[in-house]
Design goal:
- It contains 21 helices and no strands.
- By secondary structure, the chain is an all-alpha fold.
- It has a single domain, classed as Amino acid/polyamine transporter I (Up-down Bundle), CATH 1.20.1740.10.
- Helix 3 (45-60) crosses helix 12 (246-275).
- The longest helix has 46 residues, at 290-335.
- The radius of gyration is 22 Å and the shape is globular.
- The protein starts with 12 loop residues before the first helix and ends in a 7-residue tail after the last helix.
Amino acid sequence: MSRNSEKQTVLEDGEHLSVLGYEDHFNRSMSFWANFALGFTYLSPLVGVYSLFATALAVGGPPSIFWIFIVGAGQLLVSLVFGEVVSQYPIHGGIYPWARRLWGRRYAWMAAWVYIWAMIVTITAVAEYGSGFLASLFGIEVTPLSTLLLTLVLLLVALLLNFSGTKTMARVAQIGLAAELLGVIGVGLYLLIFQRKQPFSVFFDTMGVQGDGGYATAFFGAALAGLFLFYGFEACGDVAEEVERPAHRIPRAMILTILVGGVSALFSFGGYVLAAPDLSAIVAGKDADPIPHILELTLGPIGAKVFLVVAVTAFLSCVLSLQAAASRLLYSFARDGMLPGHRWLSKVTPRTKVPANALVVACTVPVLLALLIFVNEDLLNSVTAFAVLGIYVAFQMVVLAALRQRIKGWRPAGPFSLGRWGIVVNALALAYGLFAMYLLAKPGSSGNPFTDGIVLIGLGIVLVTGLLYLFLARPDRKSTAAAGDAIAVAEEIRARTGSVRTLS
């Protein structure tokens, strides 16, 4: 891609927001690196690799690492589409306002409804997984009660930090970024260079996971190893009104999140595979939680304890970033009058300039879900699987809406643009997304209809309740905010700025 050299004018942040029908209510104190840190700690390769390492190897063997390449490439296409959209619409909320301005109110309501629940469930799942690290760090026995209490600690500490304001959130996200890089790249490189027990050829060895059948089934079954890793980059756009020059910076922050996240995940996943002293036991499913054992053997007791500190920091930062992104989405949704209690949810604190009430909701609902998991531990896997599918459904609703607008003649008018490649990238992103959704929604093979179809059942419940509220309460009629105006807004931006710089 090359930039044309002609100097162009662009809208100032306040004027750009005014064109979109809003006024500045937030402090634009978030830099490019802080915005990148927010997306990266939400994506959190440390969380993704740790959570699914054993499962991926047991299902797909060492070649399951190649899903990191496949999904990373697909999500990079999605991030390019999102980059063009957020560059024209640098407003709070991400998925919701993008879907609204690209298609319409009812379409956006459903996209946001699915996305809100997926985000809230993700907050719960990350806090639950993080509680195990917290328990190990302080030598607390892992029981359902201790897991619940430590999960609540992570949720409440993240809430208090978010209450402190955007600057605090940005600082914690940057600390989390450093912890993530140390925990995944630093440890991964150390394992690769100094603690390698397996040959590199092991990544082409299925180790018999396919049984008597073909390997393709096993490989596709391990897709979650990559699919769970590569979302969170969209959070960079959720806080657009708190970022300086968001139309320029957020698209690049999202792309960098994918690239650095992918490299980090490769070093981490690959390092653990190569350093595993008994890889066959992990592949056979005999070691359900192998990473602590690998770290204990390779780093020693002190090194393993240091890693736990890094891991807890990364999990806390991830929960904080998720809460921040979810609260901005709720705020954006409420600001347009699209939710019950919208006036309460859309309030911004005068001193710290954060949507405090939306933050409370983004913490309270995960607390309630954690209580349900305390009653039934088996729910954790189900809610995690739903979270991933829900995120991908919401993503593809935006990708589809963008492609529809392009076919109608939309040429994105933000300072970040793919030019003539836009429609090609958009179509490829949609094709990848449909493939990913198929893999996530495909029923299992345990023989239990409820267990095998729990992901689709969960999505069905969310969709049905959302549609019922939409057509009974008609929130779309209570909002006068602009919708379906992508072409008109692009023309207005061009009228004010002239031709914008493009990437072609």
